[in-house]
Design goal:
Blueprint: E1 6-13, H1 21-34, E2 38-45, E3 61-67, E4 70-71, E5 75-76, H2 81-90, E6 96-101, H3 107-118, E7 121-125, H4 132-136, H5 139-155, E8 159-162, H6 165-173, E9 180-182, E10 204-209, H7 218-228, E11 233-238, H8 245-256, E12 262-266, H9 270-279, E13 282-283, H10 287-292
Parallel strand pairs: 1-2, 1-6, 2-3, 6-7, 7-8, 8-9, 10-11, 10-13, 11-12
Antiparallel strand pairs: 4-5
Helix pairs in contact: 2-3, 7-8
């Protein structure tokens, strides 16, 4: 039986509008707690601005929300109490690990600061934010941040976590030197659903289920559909609109004359999400890579 650890996870928000980590990070924390570890999840609370998810609970898991204000574009103004919260949660704890989820935000520096003071180890999971297609979005700003602070921050970590072997390769190509552990996001698979006869044999569905955000490459998908006009295919777009990008995608659909292919259904909850997955014929998330691979 391994050592029981004290693990402090940090993430931007647990609001579903902020993407997959709102679900996968609490689930990871709950599983680590179930193994006997003492786990704390520190996150930002926007005071009811966004819908809350039902969070998993365990006696070994503590949630610490930190009140924060929000400005345009879902950019949090980080509160000064963040570092204090990390130091208080980690004080006098042995086998202490900080696990930060995401990059670019001030939290990364605060986590490293707290870990240095407490003699703790650190892990950062970029969560796809350093993938080539993601780096192209607001590329000049990210290049400056990379050179000024982000690369050096990441190289100060004890280890990095990638959720796929492709992501691990990209992290190495960026010149990051800490060991990289490839640990995919876990998920609970629902019982198989009988989808026989769900639609006509000559009708197929491409499902996009994620945040509707510029970096997801949906405009490229619209152009690809307009270029190929695949017979018998429909494109279903499900997810939260971020930065008003859905309107831009819908305008592109009209401009390209492919309205008959696309449907936008908004955000979906877990049961409907699993139904959509099981009924789809093709799933596209990393649209730029998806199109490159044909």
């Amino acid at each position: 039986e391994g050592k029981r650890m004290n693990i402090i996870h940090t993430t931007t928000s647990l609001a579903p509008e902020f993407g997959g980590p709102a679900r996968t990070v609490p689930a990871l924390c709950a599983e680590l707690a179930a193994l006997g570890n003492r786990v704390v999840l520190v996150y930002l609370d926007f005071g009811g601005v966004f819908k809350s998810l039902d969070l998993p609970h365990h006696p070994n898991l503590t949630y610490q929300p930190l009140g924060v204000k929000l400005r345009a574009g879902l950019r949090p103004i980080w509160i000064s109490g963040f570092l204090t919260a990390l130091l208080d949660q980690g004080a006098a704890k042995q086998e202490l690990i900080f696990h930060d989820h995401g990059v670019w935000l001030p939290s990364g520096g605060q986590v490293l600061n707290a870990a240095s003071r407490l003699g703790a180890k650190t892990i950062t999971a970029p969560r796809g934010m350093l993938e080539p297609w993601a780096l192209q979005y607001k590329g000049l700003r990210k290049k400056a941040a990379w050179l000024l602070y982000q690369k050096s921050r990441l190289n100060r970590n004890t280890a990095l976590q990638a959720t796929s072997f492709d992501e691990a390769c990209h992290l190495k190509q960026l010149g990051l030197t800490p060991p990289i552990a490839v640990i995919p996001n876990g998920t609970e698979i629902p019982a198989p659903k009988d989808t026989e006869g769900r639609h006509a044999a000559d009708e197929k569905t491409l499902l996009f289920l994620s945040r509707i955000h510029p970096k997801k490459g949906l405009i490229n998908l619209v152009k690809a559909i307009a270029l190929t006009r695949p017979k018998g295919w429909k494109v279903l777009i499900a997810g939260y609109d971020e930065q008003g990008h859905q309107l831009a995608v819908q305008n592109a659909v009209r401009e390209q004359g492919v309205e008959d292919y696309f449907s936008f259904i908004g955000p979906v909850e877990d049961k409907m999400k699993w139904d959509l997955y099981q009924e789809a014929d093709l799933f596209g998330l990393d649209i730029p890579a998806f199109i490159r691979q044909g």
